[in-house]
Amino acid sequence: MNKYDIICAGEMLMDFTPAKEPYTYTANPGGAPANVAVAAARNGLSTAFLGLLGNDDFGKRLKATLENEGIRLLCQELTDKAVTTLAFVTLYEGGERSFTFVRKPGADILLSPEDVNEEDIAACRLFHAGSFSLSDSPAREAVALGMRLAHDMGKIVSFDVNYRDSIWQDMDRCRDEIFKLLPFIDLLKISDEELFFVGGEENIPALMEKHNITVLIETLGSKGAKYYFKGKEKFIPGLKVQAVDATGAGDAFWGGFLGRLLMFHISSPKDITEEMVETALIYGNISGGLCVEKMGGIPAIPTREEISRRLASFTKTLGRQKSS
């Protein structure tokens, strides 16, 4: 039986990133949970991906991408019932972007509860998912099942709000689906632009207490991120870089954060301390910052060695800021 540090569940798709000429694109593998899986794998963790790919050229390339990263694809069979989901990226000044999705349906939607294996869940330490998969059935039920099983088995459960208006077109519907799963979530990632989901920043402590959420991370783009833990909160500034493409940066951040937490050899939410959270947040900020320096999602996600090389100087900068 394989043992996994982390299982990432949900979508893997092909990102089409703008090339130099107008309306020309470079195809790069992507999808938020898949990005997190790659980030974890590049940090030396045993990683598996629970998601469905189409039996087409894109799906075959995505499967090969996972295999090349040493990530086990838990759904080995490619489906003929839908094509692999595609995302066309529009870039703006400063590296920010928007997405146009080709998904009517996409293969990722067809992940079903039958694809969720209890033995796989039992063999992991952390189970991660995001809201993209909650938008349609049967993927919605499959991901929810995986999260509930992981929670009931005492595993650490991670969730990224990751709201995409072009997928949901209804913020309230997305919020309702997320709130159904809050009781199963230990680590919650939300951006400052998504705070309406939790009633604003001032409501975060009450939300965490009500749903027994161990850690909530609020990402603030290039500024950095803030953690909330046991009634405490702290802001950690981001890595100062020249941003080229923000695609996958949030996932590189979260994969780095989760990876660093798991390096502490934790196996339960009860094992997490504030020092671990702060250390992991610094690490995640570096991972996300390095990602935006390059183009294109998964190809831009840094390795543990790249993060470690930047860590010492970044920590010194933080120290100087504290003493000034």
Give me the secondary-structure topology.
Blueprint: E1 4-9, E2 13-18, E3 25-30, H1 32-41, E4 47-50, H2 57-68, E5 72-73, E6 86-91, E7 97-102, H3 118-122, E8 124-130, H4 139-152, E9 156-160, H5 165-168, H6 171-181, E10 187-191, H7 204-211, E11 215-219, E12 224-229, E13 232-237, H8 249-262, H9 274-291, H10 304-323
Parallel strand pairs: 1-4, 1-8, 2-6, 4-5, 8-9, 9-10, 10-11
Antiparallel strand pairs: 2-3, 6-7, 11-12, 12-13
Provide a quick synopsis of the model:
36% of the residues lie in helices and 22% in strands. By secondary structure, the chain is of the alpha/beta class. A nine-stranded mixed sheet has the order 5-4-1-8-9-10-11-12-13, sandwiched between helices. The protein has a four-stranded mixed sheet with strand order 3-2-6-7.
Distance between the termini: 53 Å
For the largest beta sheet, what order do the strands appear in spatially? Answer: 5-4-1-8-9-10-11-12-13
Order of helices and strands: EEEHEHEEEHEHEHHEHEEEHHH
Strand content: 15-25%
**Overall SS class:** alpha/beta
Using only CA atoms, what is the Rg? 18 Å
**Helix percent band:** 25-40%
Number of helices, counting only DSSP H or I runs of 4 residues or more = 10
On the 0-100 scale, what is the average pLDDT? 93
Main sheet attributes: strand count, strand direction, barrel closure: 9 strands, mixed
The best one-word shape is globular
- The strand count comes to 13
Low-confidence segments, ≥5 residues, pLDDT <50?
Answer: none
Going by CATH, the homologous superfamily would be: Ribokinase
